[in-house]
Structure of Phospholipase:
Amino acid sequence: MRAFPDSRRIPPRSTDSATASGTPRGSRWPGLRRAAALTAAATITCSVGVAFAPSAGATITAPADPENAAARTAILESVALQPNPALVPDDFTAAAGYRPVVEGGMLINPQGDCSSPVPLPAEFDLACKSHDLGYDLLRYAAAHGQPLGPWARQAVDAALERRMHTACDTRTGTLSRSECQIMASVAATAVDLNSIRQDYGNPIYEPFFEHTGSGPSPATLTLSGIGLAVGLAVAATVLLRRTRDALARVVRAERPAVAL
């Protein structure tokens, strides 16, 4: 994960200066140690959803029926760096009710959005619209009786995650960029969990509070995501503030006294 920026430790000028002030070496960086613990906890929490996901090799299996060749080509084009909208199937527009367009270097559904009960950063807009197109292409293939294999939904979800994190890099503020990266990880985890629930197959509509099979309802996943987002946001804020305060204290302690 890239949720937290690297912090540089400023070494003391000498061993004597570390002990002369009466401060034990072990307690010189209490803020940073607590911040590191928060970082580890946040990383473990974010990794839970991914840790129990099936491996790529285990889920990418050959479909029972031949895949829809046109939809397969369009899916690969939708996750490409320089997509060509002309490769979208000719009858897709009539079936989906819109014509895909290229915007910001992405092939997107111009009518799509980030359909999330939790407000997501505005920078995610194009990534969400491209993800919507990918799912519509999966539905298109299934409607023609030639669904695509799990690889297709995995590719669409992976592109969403990559593009959200890339969008966060445009932010200049360290704290703002970290918060954006956290929301990208939370959103990507929620999407992955839902795809796992549906076995990486055709995206289907599920009532928000209704259980499907033995898995949790979308409401349960959403509430879990909200809790995860709040926890990680707090951890990031505490980490950055404690690191900043610790560095400021070290700089003040090591600044040479001005002779009067």
About this structure: The chain has a mean pLDDT of 74. DSSP finds nine helices and two strands in the chain. The radius of gyration is 24 Å. The longest strand covers residues 101-103.
